[in-house]
Amino acid sequence: KRAKAEAPFGNEQAPLLGLDVYHRDEADLRDKALGSPICIVRGLLSPTTDDEDPFALPLLRRDHGATKVKMVLQRPMSKPGWKLPPQTSALRTLGPYIDAMRRDLEENTSPDTSKPLEFAANVDTSSEDMAPQLDALKTLLPAWLLWQSDEDALRFVRQGVPGMTAPQLYLKRKGVWTGGHEENLRFSSVNCCHGPGSSRWFAVDPQHASKVRSLVKEKCQVDIYVDEGNWWPDPSWLRSYGIPVREGLQQAGDVIVLRGGTLHWVVCDDLPSVHSSWNFGVQCAETFEAALERAALNDVIRYPNIIAVRSLLLDLAAHLVSQEDTDAKLLAVCSQSAAVVARAARRDEAAIKQARLGVEGEPDGALVIRCDACGADLPVFYSRCDSCFGCQNGTPFMCVSCGLRHRRRHRDISAVAKQSISEVEALATKCASLCGAPPPDFTAPEVGKKRGAMKACPQCAKLIPNRCETCPACGGCAVRKRSSKKKKDGVPPAWTDAAAELAVAATRDPQKVVFGPQRGPRDVSAAPGLSPAAFESQTPSRAPSAGSWADLGAPPPGRESSGSWGDLGVLAEPAALSTVVPAAALPVEAALPPAYLDLAGVPAIVSPPNMRRVASEPYEPLLLDADVLRTAGPIHPLVIDDVLPVALVQTTP
Fold first, then answer.
1. For the segment 376-423, what is each residue's pLDDT rounded down to a tens digit?
2. d(Cα 272, Cα 149) in Å, to the nearest integer?
3. Which of 509, 534, 525 minimizes the C-alpha distance to 593?
4. How many whole angstroms separate alpha carbon 260 and alpha carbon 526?
5. How buried is residue 169: exposed, middle or buried, by Cβ count under 10 Å (0-12/13-18/19+)?
6. What DSSP element (H or E) covers 99?
7. How far apart are CA 326 and CA 575, in angstroms?
8. N or C: which end of the chain has fewer CB within 10 A?
């Protein structure tokens, strides 16, 4: 559905809140910052003033000017909306963009708003050339804000993700914007503004996200998670429906600490600036409960999960067990997740045995995390297709379900076990015993697969019982709407079916013959049949059908394909066709009319058997009268003119 251009305002008036601001010297800074939906921490960084600063534009131009990045191209923000034009990207060199930023600072210029704005987003720092920038961040920031630190739960991710498990740079000019979104899998985020400009932030607290989603669905026909990053709301519109909105200015040297479930959107509204950002995972139960909820929601809306949460929880559980951690809530989450993995692995094992696939161990150093076909997490079993290695669009590593379907294309499929199921079950049992919970039931059905299990609420994405029609969390309708498309009444049947019915009709109207290409269902009243006097006893009865197009076979000897015949895809002798006009019944002095080709109810005109098809010899049109036309449906549009029933026949000397 297309989004409405404008939605009416509500009658409520929620407050406009600011961002929480903390200073580096405050007591309990970590607890305050991590407990806030979004806050600014000041005093950790200093604005960039020296040209030799790692984040200064001259140094970035000198060291990384030749770096090619995917430049985001976006339209200037003229007015808010829930369905903004899609953004595109282009591979460009970073140097000219930095030069434009420096001109904006020195000459007080601005980007041309008549053209798409360029935004140098997601500049990776994984290369060794970015070591000065990474070292500066590690020196100035506390450990609980750093990536891959001992307090970061994302350090257990087996495959790094740029921008999440490692910082990325964002170079902004005036007017560039970032549409509304949540952080990936609702993990917390850090955004550092290195200056010299600033950015304006808008945010909605996590507890109001489900209300925003249901409201926008109702008023604007937009799912904020499906169109994530492509909407920019008007804060006054949200406030008119009782949803508080936060607004604040991030100045040079400020650090934004954001809880992952907070909806937010950002714009650079003055001078150019350089930002760095990454995600980190607070090692607590709330972090992974939110991550599992968002992963379930992504499965519902078919959005890929860029981090394998189940595999991450298995590795975290093994670490907690080895350290004998006492966080009961986190251990319970790990135990439940491991039990889900074990039950799914049992079903995969049964499918592998039924398919008679061999199971081999995973080689040392292998790093297979997600299915190449569907993106599913692969914590225990996966399938490998040797034929897909080296193929451009190949899927060499797949989940068991995708691998079994893939056997229809490639037979050389083998199953690989990353670890044994008993190890996963033992880990789940150990976590349950440490937190004082009963041992999990490994025979229970998998979540979301059978009746009586759990499902994600379409409104708030909370996991609720599958039998619920009303969500106990948000009170919204939890029944997924079915398609409202209904079969239209009065639609004529397919023209081949109508032709078959008209073939046995007693009376036929010659004025309803349709020639030429048509759109949609058509009137297919057949042409009149030949009179008995035309053929007398020589008129044959309708021959049996020639079968499908493939059954008609190759062209007969001595015949060459023409354009129309090539479009039809077949050539055949008239004797093998379902409808035949015998040439002997026609006057000798008349030019031979074309015969009729009936392909499974699709009539078409072809040349008679004794007519040579030589491109160099002249052809002339022959108008077909009613005595010649004998067909059960309209003549094929590929060989008949749009106005008159014309066929090309070879003239005789």
1. 999 999 999 988 988 888 899 999 999 999 988 888 899 999 999 999
2. 31
3. 534
4. 67
5. buried
6. helix 94-107
7. 87
8. C
Q: For the chain, how many helices (H) and strands (E)?
A: 15, 24
Indicate the pTM of the whole model.
Answer: 0.68
CA–CA gap between residue 357 and residue 379 (Å, rounded): 19
SS3 of 575, please?
helix
196 touches 47 (CB < 8 A): yes
pLDDT tens figures, 52-85: 899 999 999 999 999 999 999 999 888 899 989 8
Taking Cα atoms as reference points, which of 227, 410, 436, 402 lies closest to residue 327? 436
At residue 77, the pLDDT reads 85
Provide DSSP, 506-541: S---GGG---S---SS---PPPPPPPHHHHGGG-PP
Q: Which residue bears the tokens 């003549």?
A: 635
Across 577-590, b (16+ Cβ under 10 Å) vs e yields bbbbbeeeebeeee
Q: Which of 190, 171, 167, 160 has its CA nearest to residue 258?
A: 190
Residue ranges with strand state E in 232-281: 245-250, 255-258, 263-267, 273-280
What pLDDT sits at residue 407?
A: 87
What tokens does 114 get? 């008549």
Side-chain-facing half-sphere of 250: CA atoms under 13 Å: 32
Reference 72, options 170, 166, 190, 161; nearest CA is 170
Continuous H helices in 221-327? 235-239, 285-301, 309-323
Distances (CA, A) of 162 to 14, 190, 277, 600: 37, 14, 10, 57
Task: Output the CA angle 339-454-208, nearest 5 degrees.
Answer: 110
SS3 annotation, 356-398: CCCEEECCCCCCCCECCCCCCECCCEEEEEHHHCCCCCCCCEE
Low-confidence ranges of the chain (pLDDT < 70): 1-6, 444-453, 473, 480-653
Strand partners, 204: 263
